[in-house]
Design goal:
Length: 373
């Protein structure tokens, strides 16, 4: 990219995007910022948080002496991310809206808008790296393995990677904060955002309950013993411990309860005791809706490593093509809480190959639950 290139940085109000803009300006690029508003409702807390984030982005832009645009993508977000997630929750699956947001909003709606403003490229504060040549771009891990965000970016294609810049690829988070402090940014010590993007720090069940009808039912063990009452299967995910409101079992004192399965037909939430109970473990999975960075993916079985969630240590295994675009991933070692609706992302060394949506999991042989969907 030529130093005269026009780059628009997605300024979120956080420290990562702020330092990304500073680095690009220091490197001689023509830099502008854009603050995206991706969520709107009548929640006062949400509104105040968005305005506080915009104020932080404004302070960064002023400190850098760059223009700051503002765009509202809330309609696209609701139609292409939020509504999809609601359908998944209602079906008993656990979606990942942050991945879909990157695909449909941050590297589609934002990219299109930036191009209309005359940008040659867009930049964000993601911890990742783009390599390769035009037409054969690769998505690679960031230097800071604790912050690496390639898991959330596996849906990007060649067009998006050609136009994307990730200035933080070689930095650690402490180094980013030091640079922000040196640059005079007020947000240099701002905490990282956590939680699902449209929920933020709010109560998950309380928020979703505004959009999904509660359908209470029994909480049961794999052998059919009822041990409690759930508030609706949509509000729980596999491996969950908190919020079950179950006491201990005199036969197994001291062992906490965990969600092991959902029976959508009987409206039962299946639970077991013990963090590593066999019912929580899987030898493999089948995933569909695969997206490949190179556009096609491998056409034969390959050795790879995989992540089932952000920051998980890579797990080795075999990836095998099936029919209709589905693929089976068989782990070298059983994995805990393989969750339908979540993404599995596969790697070859530091290179992210792509990923898919978990459809089913293969329970370990000793599991009391079989054929889990």
């Amino acid at each position: 990219m030529q130093r005269t290139s026009h780059i628009i940085v997605g300024l979120s109000g956080g420290v990562d995007s702020a330092v990304s803009a500073w680095l690009l300006r220091e490197q001689g690029y023509r830099v502008e910022g854009l603050f995206m508003k991706n969520w709107e409702d009548d929640d006062t807390e949400s509104h105040c948080s968005a305005e506080a984030d915009y104020a932080d982005a404004r302070q960064v832009a002023d400190a850098l002496g760059i223009p700051l645009h503002r765009a509202n993508f809330a309609a696209q977000y609701r139609a292409e991310v939020f509504d999809h997630c609601l359908r998944e929750f209602r079906a008993g699956r656990t979606p990942n809206p942050d991945i879909l947001c990157n695909q449909r909003i941050k590297f589609r709606a934002f990219l299109d808008h930036a191009r209309r403003l005359g940008a040659d490229a867009v930049a964000t504060g993601h911890y990742a790296s783009v390599g390769g040549e035009p037409g054969a771009r690769t998505l690679r891990r960031a230097t800071d393995t604790e912050k690496d965000q390639t898991y959330f970016l596996y849906t990007l294609g060649q067009e998006q990677l050609e136009a994307a810049i990730f200035p933080l690829a070689g930095l650690t988070k402490p180094a980013v904060r030091r640079l922000a402090d040196q640059a005079g940014f007020n947000n240099f010590d701002k905490p990282d955002s956590t939680g699902i993007c449209f929920i933020g720090e709010r109560d998950f069940r309380g928020f979703l309950g505004r959009y999904i009808d509660s359908r209470p039912g029994p909480i049961a063990t794999p052998d059919g013993e009822t041990v409690g009452q759930h508030e609706g299967l949509a509000f729980y995910t596999l491996g969950q411990r908190r919020g079950l409101n179950l006491g201990g079992d005199a036969k197994r004192p001291g062992l906490a309860w965990y969600v092991a399965d959902k029976n959508m037909e009987t409206n039962q939430l299946i639970v077991v005791q013990g963090h590593d109970h066999p019912a929580l473990m899987s030898d493999g999975l089948v995933a569909d809706h695969w997206h490949w960075i190179d556009g096609h993916g491998p056409d034969a079985p390959i050795r790879c490593t995989a992540r089932l969630r952000h920051r998980q240590i890579d797990q080795p295994g075999w990836l095998t093509p099936l029919t209709a675009g589905r693929r089976r991933l068989t782990f070298d070692h059983p994995q805990r809480a393989v969750t339908p609706g979540q993404s599995v992302v596969v790697y070859s060394g530091a290179c992210c190959l792509g990923g898919g949506i978990i459809e089913t999991r293969t329970p370990v042989a000793e599991s009391p639950i079989s054929g889990v969907a």
